[in-house]
Amino acid sequence: MPAPVLAIVDDYQPFLGYLATFLRTRGYEVRPYLSGREIVAAVRSGVMPDLVLLDVTMPGLDGLETLRLLKNAAPALPVIMLSARTQTDTVVDAVRLGAVDYLVKPDDPEGLAEGALEAAVKDALERIEAVKVPMAKIQPMQPAGRNARLDGDVAAAFPTDAKVNDALRRLMRPPGERSE
Predict the structure, then answer these.
(1) E strand or H helix at 52, and its extent?
(2) Rg (Cα) of the chain, in Å, rounded?
(3) Which long-range contacts (CB under 8 A, 24 or more apart) does 150-158 make?
(4) I need a surface site. Which of 7, 52, 64, 127 has the fewest CB within 10 A?
(5) What is 5-136's CATH number?
(6) In angstroms, rounded to a whole number, what is the distance separating the alpha carbons of residues 156 and 133?
(7) pLDDT > 70: percent of the chain
(8) How far apart are CA 101 and CA 168, in angstroms?
(9) Which of 63-72, 84-93, 94-103, 147-156 has the lowest average pLDDT?
């Protein structure tokens, strides 16, 4: 099985190099980008990583605007936001725009933030794999009628979206079926 491809987007070259080296030593294929414009152009041209690690604060196209453009180009592309500090408003905005996680950049001598980053990357990639397997089993939908359903494996892979999953199940219920 090929190594997962991680795109790292950060305007600060020393940190970009450090993070790329750190993740390569953990077995990932890494594609570094120095700006939001570079990663957006790559994704739009069909270069699709498995996961994006995106700096929040960059000149020109900042992390949130880059996230917005990435989600417009590839809605299912998972993105983890990275920042030198925790900014509550930015965290909320990033999650609303579709980021799967928000982490403080690793720079501690004890390596705690590196461990958190590695765990977040593994978690995001495992969630992607958990969805891929059931998605391969889904039969094509018939064009007429409302016969869609929310696959239980997909719902289980994203348990934090329970309210959304419940709402989708209600919407996909065949006409005339009793409401709970």
Answers:
(1) strand 51-55
(2) 18
(3) 156/130, 157/127, 157/130, 157/131, 158/127, 158/131
(4) 127
(5) 3.40.50.2300
(6) 13
(7) 69
(8) 23
(9) 147-156
Q: What's the token pair of residue 180? A: 């709970």
Domain spans of the chain, in order of start: 5-136, 141-172
Residue 55, φ and ψ in degrees, nearest 5: -70, 140
C-alpha distances (whole Å) from 74 to each of 28, 51, 146, 157 are: 21, 11, 26, 19
pLDDT for 77-106, tens place per residue?
999 999 887 778 888 898 899 999 888 887
Tokens of 12: 């600060």
Helix (H, G, I), strand (E, B) or coil at 58: coil
Question: Which helix (H) or strand (E) covers residue 32, if one does?
Answer: strand 29-33
Structure-token pair, residue 76: 């299912």
